[in-house]
Amino acid sequence: QPELVAALAEDVQITRLEADVAVYLDPTIDKWNGAAELQALARRAAEFLAEAKRPAARAAMLVLSCLLALIQELPWHLAGSARPEALDDVAAKLRQARALGADREAVAQKVLPLEAVCAVMRGGGASATAVLAQLWSQECAACLADGDACIASAHALKEALVATEAADTSVKSATGAPAGSGSKALHQALQGVLSSLGVGWRRRFVS
Asked: In whole angstroms, what is the distance from residue 170 CA to residue 176 CA?
């Protein structure tokens, strides 16, 4: 059963790498060198993506590569200078992951949140990205267990986007100044989304 052995080996590699990313994102764990650790994780994901054979494994690595890329881009976004070429690459990879046949649960848990974060960083506008966050929230509620971290993250992102739009509208009407890169609450919501994907795939089990 060489195909089965190869599939299991890929699944183990995916789980191990996702777990290492989850550890990296855990704020309670000290980092010896956060930037170097992030680069090492991104390199491992790229190497595995180049070697992965099964569509499901390739989709998982595309998503993980996008997660790591958005983590790298977050400081640039907070500084008001997210790099368009990096975000275009993320958007393209997420489309590839969908095309590889990611199912509804996988899209709700892994793809939609990254699409929402990418849209925010690309300056898609608070109203448009709030609609995407709402869609993500609805899909999470339909596919995942009550209380899943993705549901809370989707709600927090939507609320932060709505508040940001209101604040930006108020500032612009009072001063004529353009909207900034977002509020502290929005930045925290983006960080929460990137930390909510977890390890493996979660499902709503019906008894």
From this structure: 10
pLDDT above 50: residue 204: no
Pick the closest to residue 180 from 170, 192, 189, 190 (CA basis).
170
| Distances, alpha carbon 202 to alpha carbons 109, 110, 145, 181, 197, in Å | 8, 10, 8, 32, 10
Across 13-21, average pLDDT: 92
Residues found in the chain: 207
Q: Which residues of 164-175 are buried (b: 16+ CB within 10 A; e: fewer)?
A: bbebbeeeeeee
Q: What is the pTM of this model?
A: 0.85
Which residues touch 37 (CB under 8 Å, ≥6 apart)?
24, 31
